[in-house]
Hints:
The chain is an alpha+beta fold and 352 residues long. The protein is 46% helix and 21% strand. The longest helix is centred in the first third of the chain and has 40 residues, at 33-72.
Amino acid sequence: xxxxxxxxxxxxxxxxxxxxxxxxxxxxxxxxxxxxxxxxxxxxxxxxxxxxxxxxxxxxxxxxxxxxxxxxxxxxxxxxxxxxxxxxxxxxxxxxxxxxxxxxxxxxxxxxxxxxxxxxxxxxxxxxxxxxxxxxxxxxxxxxxxxxxxxxxxxxxxxxxxxxxxxxxxxxxxxxxxxxxxxxxxxxxxxxxxxxxxxxxxxxxxxxxxxxxxxxxxxxxxxxxxxxxxxxxxxxxxxxxxxxxxxxxxxxxxxxxxxxxxxxxxxxxxxxxxxxxxxxxxxxxxxxxxxxxxxxxxxxxxxxxxxxxxxxxxxxxxxxxxxxxxxxxxxxxxxxxxxxxxxxxxxxxxxx
Length: 352
């Protein structure tokens, strides 16, 4: 983001903060408690950005004063103070830029992360599990909490399908950059001839829609089934028929949840995920209409990978959207993803 764009965004956030703050003094503000809570949360987020801008302005003024003093006399303590101001300004710029990256309405929402292997059987199932491990380590490193809500093991290794809900600051805003096809090239450990294989897995990320978003679901459109939990939920998996599978008949969307403590909790979580998926469909329809008017086209299919992870004949991870390349594949597979995520977010905001 350039300086002019950053100034514009900060001024916009100041106006938004003022408008929302004015709402809080109205007599009926707390009538809708959930809506009021969400408004207060948004005010806190905006206030943080505005306070960062105020700190930045203050430090700039302190640096200007220090420079004026240095012109009059060369004092070591003034030079040290100037260096401290410069370091603090750099930190404030970095923090402000980070906060301005998350400006989409759902960036602060929890995320639903789904990993689904492509064709290729055991090889692609194993790749899907490698991605799961990568994201779990990334979440642990970035203080994000997660819960595996559905897990279907592969016959020999890996996973056929896995869904997680992810909570924490800007969970969806961070993970949305991972949505797409991920490609692995390696010598397959499952091939006795030690041939090189290419595997694909699809990563889907949508925001976990909160209760304030209206999505109407007709009960007659739902097929609800129960089955025995078999997932990787640890000690909290209930071995009775507590797992829930919900099919939305008009769209064919199937959502399963098996790792909550009870059938009712599994059903509640599955309904939240279904609601989020239906909301995503509606948003996509609107974007398709806009893109149709603009004449834009999107590449869809297994060939349009967003990132390639090459283990043989050389080692490299390349993000095809930002052209970022990393030679240390092991660090990436161990959750070192921030360079890819931040580069994608910065590139995306430059387009707006």
